[in-house]
Each structure stands twice: as structure tokens, then as C-alpha cells.
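Entry:
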Amino acid sequence: MAKVCDHTSVGMLVWKEGKLLLIERRKFPFGFAIPAGHVDEDTSFENAAIRELKEEVGLDAIDLELVIEGRKENLCRREDGSWHFWKIYKVDNKGELEPSSEETKRTGWYSSEEIQKLGERTEKYLAGEISDEEWEGDPGLEPVMYNWFKELNIIR
């Protein structure tokens, strides 16, 4: 039975020496994103953030600071997944990166210049200049992340 979208998502901004931790998603929606996921059965957005950070990249959250929240129109692979209410946290963490091979193609620390280039690729994709097939093989920022990064002034 297909999972039904709960329309709630968390995202975690993890910074290290001026670079942001991004994952390339293995599954739809394709693109580079901060570790993120649905709240599901967790008792709070904060608990979901702690769980998702551990699941996706193996890090333990030691401090969460809410940075921004709001509703975004964004598709997910779940039934009825067309929008989500997001809470995005800045996260202090400990541990070693251990990316989930099930959820991530690759993981890395990206400079603001590298993130800007990924955002420019997303703009081309959203303008129809890049096909879905090309995008899946060589994506930019996941579109919802592109929107959040603009609001957060991570990209121009």
C-alpha cells in the first residue's frame, strides 16, 4: 500500500567551516537538498528532524534552532504529495557522516559558489531547458530547496 503524504516536512541546515551539507537524492524528487523528510508518526517536528538527520547522513543532532517555516507547493513521491508545511532548522551535530545508500547518491559540503551554480542549473530546469531525464542524471537543487535557499539568502 502506498504511503499517503502527511504534508509536513523538516529540513536541516548543517554548516561546517562555511560550507553546507547537501545530499543528492537517489529517489524522486531528484536534486540536491539539505537532509530532509516527512514528520510522519514523530511527536514533533524537532523529533522528526533528529530522526531524519540520523537516517539520511548518520549525524546526531545536539541542538536545533528553527530558522524558517511555511507552506510550499512541492511534489513528493507519496500519494497526494503536492504541498508541505516545512520547518527548517539550523543544526549543531556530532558524529561522522554515514550517508544512507538507500536515500542518497552522494553527500558533500558545498560552498556558497557551488550552491549558486546548482541553483542556476535549477533555473534552467524550471525554464524547460533541461529534460527530466537529463535532470535525473545531473541535477541542480531540488526545486523546493531552490525556493527556500532564495528566501534564506543562501543563493541569489
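Helices lie at 45-57, 112-126, 132-137, 143-151.
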